């Protein structure tokens, strides 16, 4: 079972939903093809924070809450997330995630690509009924956005002439949009007013932006051990994140950083260390955390007043957690 | 635009649908991410027989035929097919298909994986409305089957102890099921009786089995030029098709064939030629064509009598075309 319960006590309020979710996920990944079931179980055991379904449940609790009725969308959300991670790990040639071996490292790229497709299809099949047309529509559009975000990221790799704005557009498509839609779907399931649905979407968007920027900060500050994947991995792949872009613009050694990055695909550990040193010589990390704080403030301000204070409190806690997390 | 019109005059009856389909496909693949649009256009220009939507249209013509209403499912069917081909080419590391460079060869594996995901999501987004719930349900289950089929294929690669039955299960999941569902969806769109829907499903299944077996025969008989991809490609990858399995069981040089295949991944051109010679020394190709003929007879016998004779005639012609095709 996932490890979401230990670190994220902020999700206590939706413990019922998250527990049931684990069981439903385990049931749904069962396949006639044994390897597919094995991969699914492996992914489930690898755990994860279940951030998206947790936010979905939290927002759903702000109104009418019928767990059985709203469960398929929660399962679909997590399956889609799992599918994108599986494909991501293929794209990044990653061998570990959350300190656990990835599907591609374990079963090969081919099987991992198919497993991702399978999880996508399973997700859609769960919501392919009249009750869930809106969810399906939002989720499919969201996946298109995620793919576009990833494609733009590949295009922009090693491009030292991009701006903070390009980065923000990209992480919105890649990450924040999906978290926003998870909140939106919860609010819709709760039967909230149009204004409140929009407000919770905005909350999710801001939390998502903060989440991704934190992730990108950790790539240049955390140890591999804490991350459960190699540190500096993004930078090595030419993915230029906020701290890197900031340092490119502000560092007195900006030209050196440019040269190190544009040297291309095969950055040595030494050069990676030099890049990270240059970044840390600026206030790039501070600046990036400032951005995180701004998004989190915006998330807090987005919370609709009509939402029950217990739910509102939990949503605030999630925002705080995002800003403080170290992994 | 696709080249479906030239070879497949059997599809004249649904020329209206197929023409409109090309336009709709071109409109739907338009993306904010320019590369995504480029890949989509590349795939469209690469053409294809449009077999699945053509069968869908043909079956739909057997009853009420409202082209505007039934078009989204046709577009979804072809997008899903395109997505599976894009991912297939990544899995096979293929550099050409229909004599045209593949997406992975042109843009790299990463972009191709994402492009496939994008096409899947676009397909589902088209049918994510109340009118198309049944279609969506059938299509998502079909994609799960296709993934399972491909996974089983990877598992069975180089396994000389598999039987004809394993092969038939695999190609049903991998190919025939989708063609069957395309016919089923057409019949449902036409508002045919349950019995006729089932009959057209069976027709599609049989046509699909014949189609895949023909494909597998061509892999050991046709020239690379005619195929638009390298001949013997499946065998090289350890995909054991009907003629190969037959020869393994019947050839006096069966043991030699076993050894050549189980030697693994890096079959030389010389050894590939030896394998193909061993296969041709048996009546494997004849036997396989016999199977094709049986499936085509079953397809013909499945056609419901209630279907208009013009439609029935076209469906018979499609069956004949499948059996005679040389590429």
Task: Jot down its keywords.
2 strands, Farnesyl Diphosphate Synthase, homodimer, 327 residues, mainly alpha, 16 helices, two-stranded antiparallel sheet, disordered N terminus
Description:
Two copies of one chain form a homodimer. Chain A has helices at 15-28, 34-45, 51-60, 67-92, 103-107, 109-126, 133-156, 164-190, 194-221, 224-227, 233-236, 242-250, 254-262, 269-281, 284-302, 309-324; strands at 96-97, 100-101. Chain A is an all-alpha fold and 327 residues long. The first copy, chain A, has one domain: Farnesyl Diphosphate Synthase (Orthogonal Bundle), CATH 1.10.600. In chain A, strands 1-2 form a two-stranded antiparallel ribbon. Chain A binds chain B through residues 31-33, 35-36, 84, 87, 90-91, 108-111, 113-118, 120-122, 124-125, 128-130, 133, 136-137, 140-141, 143-144, 146-148, 150-152, 154-155, and chain B through 31-33, 35-36, 84, 87, 90-91, 108-111, 113-118, 120-122, 124-125, 128-130, 133, 136-137, 140-141, 143-144, 146-148, 150-152, 154-155.
| Chain pair forming the biggest interface | A-B, 42 and 42 residues
Work out the helicity level of chain A.
over 70%
| Oligomerization category of the chains in this entry | homodimer
* Record field, number of beta strands of chain A: 2
CATH architecture verdict of chain A? Orthogonal Bundle
């Amino acid at each position: 079972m996932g490890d979401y319960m230990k670190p994220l006590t902020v999700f206590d309020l939706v413990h019922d939903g998250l527990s049931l979710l684990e069981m439903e996920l385990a049931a749904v990944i069962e396949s006639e093809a044994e390897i597919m079931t094995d991969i699914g179980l492996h992914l489930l055991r690898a755990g994860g924070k279940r951030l998206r379904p947790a936010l979905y449940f939290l927002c759903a609790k702000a109104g009418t809450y019928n767990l059985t009725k709203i469960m398929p969308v929660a399962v679909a959300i997590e399956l889609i997330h799992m599918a994108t991670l599986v494909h991501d790990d293929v794209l990044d040639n990653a061998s570990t995630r959350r300190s656990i071996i990835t599907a591609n490292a374990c079963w090969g790229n081919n099987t991992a690509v198919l497993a991702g497709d399978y999880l996508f299809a399973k997700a859609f099949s769960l919501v392919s009924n009249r009750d869930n047309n809106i969810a399906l529509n939002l989720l499919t559009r969201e996946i298109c956005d995620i793919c576009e975000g990833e494609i733009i990221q590949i295009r922009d790799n090693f491009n030292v002439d991009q701006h903070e704005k390009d980065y923000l557009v990209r992480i919105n498509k890649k990450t924040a949009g999906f978290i926003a839609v998870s909140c939106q779907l919860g609010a819709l399931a709760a039967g909230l007013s149009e204004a409140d649905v929009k407000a919770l979407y905005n909350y999710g968007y801001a939390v998502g932006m903060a989440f991704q920027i934190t992730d990108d900060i950790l790539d240049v500050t955390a140890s591999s051990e804490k991350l459960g994947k190699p540190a500096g991995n993004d930078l090595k792949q030419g993915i230029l994140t906020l701290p890197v872009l900031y340092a490119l613009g502000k560092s007195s050694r900006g030209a050196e950083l440019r040269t190190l990055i544009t040297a291309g695909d095969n950055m040595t550990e030494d050069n990676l260390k030099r890049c990270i040193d240059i970044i840390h010589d600026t206030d790039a990390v501070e600046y990036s955390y400032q951005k995180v704080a701004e998004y989190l403030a915006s998330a807090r301000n987005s919370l609709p007043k009509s939402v029950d204070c217990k739910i509102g409190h939990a949503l605030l806690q999630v925002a705080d957690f995002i800003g403080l997390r170290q992994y």
